[in-house]
Amino acid sequence: MSVTPSRVYAARLVGLPIFDPQGDQVGKVRDLVVSVRSEGAQPRVLGMVAEVFGRRRIFVPMTRVTNIDSGQVYTTGLLNMRRFEQRSTETLVIGEMLDRTVTITSSGVTGTVYDVAMEHTRTRDWVLSRVAVREPAKGLRRRGQTHVAEWSDVRGLTRTDDKQGATHLIAALNDMRPADAANILHDLPAERRAAVALALDDERLADVLEELPEEDQVEILERLDSERAADVLEEMSPDDAADLVADLPPETQEMLLQLMEPEEAEDVRRLMKYVENTAGAMMTPEPVILGPDATVADALAHVRNPDLTPALASMVFVCRQPLEPPTGKLLGVAHIQRLLREPPSSLVAGALDESLESLPPEATIDDVAAHLATYNLVAAPVVDENRRLLGAVTVDDLLDHMLPANWRDRAPVRSSGTGSIRG
Protein backbone atom coordinates (compact mmCIF):
# COMPACT_ATOMS: atom_id res chain seq x y z
CA MET A 1 0.00 0.00 0.00
CA SER A 2 1.43 3.39 -0.96
CA VAL A 3 1.94 6.24 1.47
CA THR A 4 -0.76 8.90 1.52
CA PRO A 5 0.48 11.98 -0.38
CA SER A 6 0.77 15.21 1.61
CA ARG A 7 -1.44 17.10 -0.89
CA VAL A 8 -4.51 15.81 -2.69
CA TYR A 9 -6.68 17.69 -5.21
CA ALA A 10 -10.43 17.29 -4.72
CA ALA A 11 -11.45 16.94 -8.37
CA ARG A 12 -9.03 14.03 -8.76
CA LEU A 13 -10.65 12.23 -5.84
CA VAL A 14 -14.11 12.15 -7.41
CA GLY A 15 -14.97 8.67 -8.61
CA LEU A 16 -12.12 6.89 -6.80
CA PRO A 17 -13.14 3.57 -5.26
CA ILE A 18 -13.22 3.24 -1.46
CA PHE A 19 -11.98 -0.03 0.03
CA ASP A 20 -12.30 -1.57 3.47
CA PRO A 21 -9.32 -3.25 5.24
CA GLN A 22 -10.16 -6.59 3.58
CA GLY A 23 -9.79 -5.07 0.12
CA ASP A 24 -13.51 -5.09 -0.69
CA GLN A 25 -14.87 -2.01 -2.43
CA VAL A 26 -17.52 -0.32 -0.31
CA GLY A 27 -18.22 2.77 -2.40
CA LYS A 28 -16.92 5.66 -4.50
CA VAL A 29 -15.87 9.20 -3.57
CA ARG A 30 -18.37 11.83 -4.68
CA ASP A 31 -17.37 14.99 -2.76
CA LEU A 32 -15.53 16.46 0.23
CA VAL A 33 -17.31 18.05 3.21
CA VAL A 34 -15.54 20.98 4.88
CA SER A 35 -16.19 23.50 7.62
CA VAL A 36 -15.42 27.04 6.41
CA ARG A 37 -14.92 29.47 9.29
CA SER A 38 -13.49 32.61 7.65
CA GLU A 39 -11.70 33.83 4.52
CA GLY A 40 -8.20 33.47 5.93
CA ALA A 41 -8.45 30.32 8.07
CA GLN A 42 -7.86 27.02 6.29
CA PRO A 43 -11.13 25.00 6.41
CA ARG A 44 -10.97 21.62 8.11
CA VAL A 45 -11.99 18.68 5.95
CA LEU A 46 -14.65 16.83 7.92
CA GLY A 47 -15.02 13.87 5.61
CA MET A 48 -16.03 12.50 2.24
CA VAL A 49 -19.40 11.97 0.66
CA ALA A 50 -19.34 8.38 -0.58
CA GLU A 51 -21.75 6.58 -2.85
CA VAL A 52 -22.46 3.02 -1.78
CA PHE A 53 -24.65 0.21 -3.08
CA GLY A 54 -28.03 1.38 -4.37
CA ARG A 55 -26.66 4.85 -5.27
CA ARG A 56 -27.03 5.84 -1.64
CA ARG A 57 -24.76 8.67 -0.41
CA ILE A 58 -23.24 8.44 3.07
CA PHE A 59 -20.76 10.43 5.12
CA VAL A 60 -17.26 9.01 5.70
CA PRO A 61 -15.37 10.94 8.43
CA MET A 62 -11.73 11.68 7.62
CA THR A 63 -10.86 9.92 10.89
CA ARG A 64 -11.98 6.70 9.14
CA VAL A 65 -9.76 7.29 6.09
CA THR A 66 -6.50 5.42 6.57
CA ASN A 67 -4.85 5.95 3.17
CA ILE A 68 -5.29 7.81 -0.11
CA ASP A 69 -3.25 7.04 -3.21
CA SER A 70 -3.56 7.77 -6.92
CA GLY A 71 -6.20 5.15 -7.56
CA GLN A 72 -8.12 4.39 -4.37
CA VAL A 73 -9.10 5.37 -0.83
CA TYR A 74 -8.82 3.02 2.15
CA THR A 75 -10.97 3.18 5.29
CA THR A 76 -11.21 1.38 8.61
CA GLY A 77 -14.37 -0.31 7.31
CA LEU A 78 -16.49 1.04 10.18
CA LEU A 79 -19.00 3.22 8.34
CA ASN A 80 -22.36 4.66 9.31
CA MET A 81 -24.77 3.76 6.49
CA ARG A 82 -27.23 6.55 7.29
CA ARG A 83 -27.93 8.75 4.26
CA PHE A 84 -25.78 11.89 4.09
CA GLU A 85 -27.59 15.12 4.86
CA GLN A 86 -25.61 18.34 4.58
CA ARG A 87 -25.65 20.61 7.64
CA SER A 88 -25.94 24.39 7.45
CA THR A 89 -22.35 24.80 8.70
CA GLU A 90 -20.92 22.51 6.01
CA THR A 91 -19.77 23.20 2.46
CA LEU A 92 -19.35 20.72 -0.40
CA VAL A 93 -16.07 21.30 -2.24
CA ILE A 94 -17.09 19.89 -5.62
CA GLY A 95 -20.74 20.86 -5.46
CA GLU A 96 -20.37 24.39 -4.11
CA MET A 97 -16.80 25.71 -4.41
CA LEU A 98 -15.98 24.92 -8.03
CA ASP A 99 -16.81 27.79 -10.40
CA ARG A 100 -16.92 30.44 -7.68
CA THR A 101 -15.43 33.77 -8.77
CA VAL A 102 -12.46 34.65 -6.54
CA THR A 103 -9.57 37.10 -6.38
CA ILE A 104 -5.94 36.32 -5.54
CA THR A 105 -5.07 39.24 -3.27
CA SER A 106 -1.30 39.23 -3.82
CA SER A 107 -1.60 39.61 -7.60
CA GLY A 108 -5.09 41.03 -8.08
CA VAL A 109 -5.94 38.20 -10.49
CA THR A 110 -9.67 37.36 -10.70
CA GLY A 111 -10.92 34.05 -12.03
CA THR A 112 -12.99 30.96 -11.27
CA VAL A 113 -12.08 28.03 -9.05
CA TYR A 114 -11.44 24.80 -10.95
CA ASP A 115 -9.91 22.70 -8.15
CA VAL A 116 -9.02 22.81 -4.45
CA ALA A 117 -6.20 20.97 -2.67
CA MET A 118 -6.22 19.53 0.84
CA GLU A 119 -3.17 18.74 2.98
CA HIS A 120 -2.32 16.84 6.15
CA THR A 121 -1.39 18.99 9.15
CA ARG A 122 0.92 18.12 12.03
CA THR A 123 -2.16 17.34 14.12
CA ARG A 124 -3.13 14.74 11.48
CA ASP A 125 -6.15 16.78 10.38
CA TRP A 126 -6.87 17.46 6.72
CA VAL A 127 -7.35 21.13 5.74
CA LEU A 128 -7.95 22.96 2.46
CA SER A 129 -4.63 24.58 1.64
CA ARG A 130 -4.53 25.69 -2.00
CA VAL A 131 -6.92 26.93 -4.64
CA ALA A 132 -6.52 26.42 -8.39
CA VAL A 133 -7.91 29.43 -10.28
CA ARG A 134 -8.43 29.95 -14.00
CA GLU A 135 -8.63 33.43 -15.52
CA PRO A 136 -11.24 34.13 -18.23
CA ALA A 137 -10.04 33.32 -21.74
CA LYS A 138 -8.59 36.27 -23.62
CA GLY A 139 -8.28 36.85 -27.34
CA LEU A 140 -8.01 33.63 -29.32
CA ARG A 141 -7.09 31.48 -26.34
CA ARG A 142 -9.46 28.64 -25.60
CA ARG A 143 -8.56 28.68 -21.91
CA GLY A 144 -7.39 31.42 -19.62
CA GLN A 145 -4.17 31.32 -17.65
CA THR A 146 -4.18 29.18 -14.50
CA HIS A 147 -2.82 29.96 -11.03
CA VAL A 148 -2.45 27.98 -7.80
CA ALA A 149 -2.64 30.14 -4.68
CA GLU A 150 -2.52 29.58 -0.94
CA TRP A 151 -5.98 29.47 0.66
CA SER A 152 -5.16 32.56 2.75
CA ASP A 153 -4.34 34.50 -0.41
CA VAL A 154 -7.76 33.98 -2.01
CA ARG A 155 -10.90 36.02 -1.39
CA GLY A 156 -14.44 35.11 -2.41
CA LEU A 157 -14.72 31.49 -1.28
CA THR A 158 -16.88 32.14 1.76
CA ARG A 159 -19.49 34.48 0.31
CA THR A 160 -22.51 33.49 -1.71
CA ASP A 161 -21.92 33.98 -5.45
CA ASP A 162 -25.19 34.71 -7.24
CA LYS A 163 -23.40 34.54 -10.60
CA GLN A 164 -21.58 31.29 -9.90
CA GLY A 165 -21.25 29.29 -13.09
CA ALA A 166 -21.09 25.56 -13.61
CA THR A 167 -18.27 24.98 -16.10
CA HIS A 168 -15.79 23.27 -13.80
CA LEU A 169 -18.39 21.28 -11.86
CA ILE A 170 -19.71 19.92 -15.13
CA ALA A 171 -16.16 19.06 -16.18
CA ALA A 172 -15.73 17.16 -12.91
CA LEU A 173 -18.93 15.21 -13.60
CA ASN A 174 -18.30 14.54 -17.29
CA ASP A 175 -16.75 11.12 -16.77
CA MET A 176 -19.58 9.88 -14.57
CA ARG A 177 -22.47 7.75 -15.65
CA PRO A 178 -25.77 9.67 -15.87
CA ALA A 179 -27.04 7.97 -12.71
CA ASP A 180 -23.98 9.10 -10.74
CA ALA A 181 -24.21 12.65 -12.09
CA ALA A 182 -27.91 12.68 -11.18
CA ASN A 183 -27.09 11.77 -7.59
CA ILE A 184 -24.70 14.68 -7.23
CA LEU A 185 -27.19 17.03 -8.88
CA HIS A 186 -29.96 15.83 -6.56
CA ASP A 187 -27.95 16.67 -3.43
CA LEU A 188 -26.94 20.19 -4.49
CA PRO A 189 -28.76 23.24 -3.06
CA ALA A 190 -31.77 24.12 -5.24
CA GLU A 191 -30.26 27.20 -6.89
CA ARG A 192 -26.93 25.47 -7.56
CA ARG A 193 -28.74 22.42 -8.94
CA ALA A 194 -30.66 24.64 -11.36
CA ALA A 195 -27.50 26.45 -12.50
CA VAL A 196 -25.71 23.17 -13.22
CA ALA A 197 -28.71 21.63 -14.96
CA LEU A 198 -29.17 24.65 -17.21
CA ALA A 199 -25.49 24.56 -18.19
CA LEU A 200 -25.65 20.94 -19.38
CA ASP A 201 -26.19 20.34 -23.09
CA ASP A 202 -29.58 18.95 -24.13
CA GLU A 203 -28.47 15.35 -24.61
CA ARG A 204 -26.59 15.15 -21.31
CA LEU A 205 -29.41 16.87 -19.41
CA ALA A 206 -31.89 14.38 -20.88
CA ASP A 207 -29.73 11.45 -19.74
CA VAL A 208 -29.45 12.88 -16.23
CA LEU A 209 -33.15 13.77 -15.97
CA GLU A 210 -34.05 10.16 -16.67
CA GLU A 211 -32.17 9.18 -13.49
CA LEU A 212 -33.60 11.85 -11.17
CA PRO A 213 -36.66 11.59 -8.89
CA GLU A 214 -39.87 12.94 -10.39
CA GLU A 215 -39.93 16.08 -8.25
CA ASP A 216 -36.40 17.01 -9.38
CA GLN A 217 -37.33 16.37 -13.01
CA VAL A 218 -40.33 18.69 -12.82
CA GLU A 219 -38.42 21.40 -10.92
CA ILE A 220 -35.61 21.46 -13.50
CA LEU A 221 -37.90 21.30 -16.53
CA GLU A 222 -39.95 24.21 -15.20
CA ARG A 223 -36.79 26.36 -15.04
CA LEU A 224 -36.10 25.84 -18.75
CA ASP A 225 -37.66 28.03 -21.40
CA SER A 226 -40.37 26.22 -23.34
CA GLU A 227 -38.32 25.70 -26.52
CA ARG A 228 -35.41 24.15 -24.66
CA ALA A 229 -37.70 22.02 -22.48
CA ALA A 230 -39.20 20.57 -25.65
CA ASP A 231 -35.72 19.91 -27.07
CA VAL A 232 -34.67 18.07 -23.90
CA LEU A 233 -37.85 15.95 -23.94
CA GLU A 234 -37.02 14.96 -27.53
CA GLU A 235 -33.61 13.69 -26.36
CA MET A 236 -35.16 11.54 -23.61
CA SER A 237 -36.39 8.03 -24.25
CA PRO A 238 -40.11 8.24 -25.12
CA ASP A 239 -41.27 6.27 -22.08
CA ASP A 240 -39.32 8.48 -19.67
CA ALA A 241 -40.47 11.61 -21.48
CA ALA A 242 -44.08 10.42 -21.27
CA ASP A 243 -43.77 9.84 -17.51
CA LEU A 244 -42.32 13.33 -17.04
CA VAL A 245 -44.88 15.10 -19.22
CA ALA A 246 -47.67 13.31 -17.38
CA ASP A 247 -46.51 14.97 -14.14
CA LEU A 248 -46.97 18.47 -15.61
CA PRO A 249 -50.17 20.58 -15.64
CA PRO A 250 -52.40 19.77 -18.67
CA GLU A 251 -51.83 23.16 -20.32
CA THR A 252 -48.05 22.76 -19.99
CA GLN A 253 -48.25 19.23 -21.38
CA GLU A 254 -49.99 20.37 -24.54
CA MET A 255 -47.70 23.38 -25.05
CA LEU A 256 -44.54 21.25 -24.85
CA LEU A 257 -45.96 18.52 -27.08
CA GLN A 258 -46.82 21.17 -29.68
CA LEU A 259 -43.24 22.43 -29.59
CA MET A 260 -41.70 18.96 -29.99
CA GLU A 261 -40.97 17.42 -33.37
CA PRO A 262 -44.22 15.75 -34.55
CA GLU A 263 -42.77 12.22 -34.65
CA GLU A 264 -41.25 12.52 -31.16
CA ALA A 265 -44.44 14.04 -29.77
CA GLU A 266 -46.55 11.28 -31.31
CA ASP A 267 -44.55 8.61 -29.48
CA VAL A 268 -45.04 10.43 -26.19
CA ARG A 269 -48.78 10.98 -26.79
CA ARG A 270 -49.23 7.31 -27.63
CA LEU A 271 -47.53 6.15 -24.43
CA MET A 272 -49.53 8.60 -22.31
CA LYS A 273 -52.77 6.95 -23.45
CA TYR A 274 -52.00 3.75 -21.56
CA VAL A 275 -52.90 3.18 -17.93
CA GLU A 276 -49.99 3.73 -15.54
CA ASN A 277 -47.92 0.66 -14.63
CA THR A 278 -49.08 -1.39 -17.62
CA ALA A 279 -46.89 -2.85 -20.35
CA GLY A 280 -48.08 -0.12 -22.73
CA ALA A 281 -47.10 2.68 -20.35
CA MET A 282 -43.70 1.13 -19.52
CA MET A 283 -42.60 0.07 -23.00
CA THR A 284 -40.23 1.87 -25.30
CA PRO A 285 -41.45 2.31 -28.89
CA GLU A 286 -37.86 2.26 -30.19
CA PRO A 287 -36.55 -1.32 -30.04
CA VAL A 288 -34.46 -2.77 -32.88
CA ILE A 289 -36.98 -3.60 -35.64
CA LEU A 290 -35.98 -5.23 -38.93
CA GLY A 291 -37.77 -6.66 -41.93
CA PRO A 292 -37.66 -10.38 -42.87
CA ASP A 293 -35.07 -9.71 -45.57
CA ALA A 294 -32.47 -8.36 -43.09
CA THR A 295 -29.25 -10.34 -42.64
CA VAL A 296 -27.54 -11.34 -39.41
CA ALA A 297 -24.85 -8.75 -40.24
CA ASP A 298 -27.58 -6.08 -40.43
CA ALA A 299 -28.92 -7.11 -37.03
CA LEU A 300 -25.51 -7.08 -35.37
CA ALA A 301 -24.76 -3.66 -36.82
CA HIS A 302 -27.98 -2.28 -35.34
CA VAL A 303 -27.38 -3.63 -31.83
CA ARG A 304 -23.90 -2.08 -31.78
CA ASN A 305 -25.61 1.31 -31.37
CA PRO A 306 -24.10 2.67 -28.11
CA ASP A 307 -27.38 4.47 -27.30
CA LEU A 308 -29.17 1.15 -26.85
CA THR A 309 -29.49 -0.21 -23.33
CA PRO A 310 -28.15 -3.77 -22.84
CA ALA A 311 -31.73 -5.02 -22.50
CA LEU A 312 -32.86 -3.48 -25.81
CA ALA A 313 -29.72 -4.80 -27.51
CA SER A 314 -30.51 -8.36 -26.43
CA MET A 315 -33.00 -9.10 -29.20
CA VAL A 316 -34.19 -8.00 -32.61
CA PHE A 317 -37.86 -7.84 -33.57
CA VAL A 318 -38.66 -8.98 -37.11
CA CYS A 319 -41.86 -7.53 -38.58
CA ARG A 320 -43.59 -6.97 -41.88
CA GLN A 321 -43.78 -3.43 -43.25
CA PRO A 322 -44.19 -0.79 -41.94
CA LEU A 323 -41.25 -1.03 -39.55
CA GLU A 324 -42.26 1.95 -37.39
CA PRO A 325 -44.56 1.08 -34.44
CA PRO A 326 -47.30 0.13 -34.77
CA THR A 327 -45.61 -2.12 -37.31
CA GLY A 328 -46.92 -4.75 -39.63
CA LYS A 329 -47.39 -8.24 -38.18
CA LEU A 330 -44.68 -9.36 -35.76
CA LEU A 331 -43.07 -12.49 -37.25
CA GLY A 332 -40.87 -13.31 -34.27
CA VAL A 333 -37.84 -12.25 -32.29
CA ALA A 334 -34.18 -13.08 -32.82
CA HIS A 335 -31.99 -13.37 -29.72
CA ILE A 336 -28.54 -11.83 -30.19
CA GLN A 337 -26.93 -14.82 -28.49
CA ARG A 338 -28.36 -17.04 -31.25
CA LEU A 339 -27.40 -14.61 -34.02
CA LEU A 340 -23.77 -14.65 -32.90
CA ARG A 341 -23.68 -18.33 -33.86
CA GLU A 342 -25.09 -17.75 -37.37
CA PRO A 343 -23.21 -16.81 -40.58
CA PRO A 344 -23.33 -13.01 -41.06
CA SER A 345 -24.79 -13.37 -44.57
CA SER A 346 -27.72 -15.54 -43.48
CA LEU A 347 -31.19 -14.07 -42.97
CA VAL A 348 -32.35 -13.12 -39.49
CA ALA A 349 -35.70 -14.71 -40.39
CA GLY A 350 -33.97 -18.09 -40.34
CA ALA A 351 -33.06 -17.72 -36.66
CA LEU A 352 -36.39 -16.52 -35.26
CA ASP A 353 -37.88 -17.59 -31.98
CA GLU A 354 -41.47 -17.84 -33.17
CA SER A 355 -42.75 -19.51 -30.01
CA LEU A 356 -42.12 -16.58 -27.66
CA GLU A 357 -45.39 -15.18 -26.37
CA SER A 358 -46.04 -11.46 -26.55
CA LEU A 359 -47.60 -9.10 -24.03
CA PRO A 360 -50.74 -7.03 -24.58
CA PRO A 361 -50.40 -3.31 -23.77
CA GLU A 362 -52.88 -3.64 -20.89
CA ALA A 363 -50.76 -6.31 -19.12
CA THR A 364 -50.21 -5.30 -15.49
CA ILE A 365 -46.84 -4.80 -13.89
CA ASP A 366 -47.21 -8.20 -12.18
CA ASP A 367 -48.03 -9.81 -15.54
CA VAL A 368 -44.89 -8.30 -17.05
CA ALA A 369 -42.72 -9.45 -14.17
CA ALA A 370 -44.10 -12.99 -14.35
CA HIS A 371 -43.60 -13.09 -18.14
CA LEU A 372 -39.95 -11.99 -18.00
CA ALA A 373 -39.22 -14.37 -15.12
CA THR A 374 -40.99 -17.35 -16.72
CA TYR A 375 -39.09 -17.09 -20.00
CA ASN A 376 -35.79 -15.79 -18.56
CA LEU A 377 -35.98 -12.61 -20.64
CA VAL A 378 -34.63 -9.10 -20.27
CA ALA A 379 -37.04 -7.75 -22.93
CA ALA A 380 -40.36 -8.79 -24.44
CA PRO A 381 -42.55 -7.58 -27.32
CA VAL A 382 -45.80 -5.70 -26.72
CA VAL A 383 -48.38 -6.20 -29.47
CA ASP A 384 -51.97 -5.17 -30.22
CA GLU A 385 -54.88 -7.48 -31.06
CA ASN A 386 -53.65 -7.74 -34.68
CA ARG A 387 -50.16 -8.76 -33.54
CA ARG A 388 -48.68 -5.47 -34.65
CA LEU A 389 -45.59 -4.55 -32.61
CA LEU A 390 -46.20 -1.51 -30.40
CA GLY A 391 -42.89 -1.58 -28.56
CA ALA A 392 -40.80 -3.58 -26.12
CA VAL A 393 -40.85 -3.66 -22.34
CA THR A 394 -37.48 -4.30 -20.69
CA VAL A 395 -36.38 -5.45 -17.27
CA ASP A 396 -34.97 -1.99 -16.48
CA ASP A 397 -38.37 -0.45 -17.34
CA LEU A 398 -39.95 -2.97 -14.98
CA LEU A 399 -37.56 -2.24 -12.11
CA ASP A 400 -38.05 1.51 -12.48
CA HIS A 401 -41.77 1.01 -11.85
CA MET A 402 -41.61 -1.79 -9.29
CA LEU A 403 -39.14 -0.24 -6.86
CA PRO A 404 -40.63 2.11 -4.25
CA ALA A 405 -40.31 5.83 -4.93
CA ASN A 406 -37.78 6.23 -2.11
CA TRP A 407 -35.63 3.21 -2.96
CA ARG A 408 -32.49 5.37 -3.23
CA ASP A 409 -32.91 6.42 0.40
CA ARG A 410 -33.01 2.89 1.78
CA ALA A 411 -29.97 1.54 3.53
CA PRO A 412 -28.32 -1.35 1.69
CA VAL A 413 -28.21 -4.73 3.40
CA ARG A 414 -24.74 -5.45 4.75
CA SER A 415 -23.41 -8.59 6.32
CA SER A 416 -21.15 -6.75 8.74
CA GLY A 417 -22.13 -4.23 11.40
CA THR A 418 -21.66 -0.49 11.02
CA GLY A 419 -19.75 1.22 13.71
CA SER A 420 -19.04 4.89 13.42
CA ILE A 421 -21.34 7.81 13.94
CA ARG A 422 -20.90 11.17 12.27
CA GLY A 423 -18.97 13.55 14.39
From TrEMBL:
Protein's UniProt keywords contain Flavoprotein: no
Keyword tRNA processing: no
PROSITE patterns: CBS (PS51371)
Pfam families, per database record: CBS, MgtE_N, PRC, SH3_actinomycetes
InterPro entries (UniProt xref): CBS_dom, CBS_dom_sf, Mg_transptr_MgtE_intracell_dom, MgtE_N_sf, MgtE_transporter, PRC-brl_dom, PRC_barrel-like_sf, SH3_actinomycetes
Keywords: CBS domain
Entry-linked Gene3D superfamilies: CBS-domain (3.10.580.10), MgtE N-terminal domain-like (1.25.60.10)
Residue ranges of domain CBS in the record: 352-410
PANTHER family associated with the record: MAGNESIUM TRANSPORTER MGTE
Record protein name field: CBS domain-containing protein
Taxonomic source organism: Nocardioides panacisoli
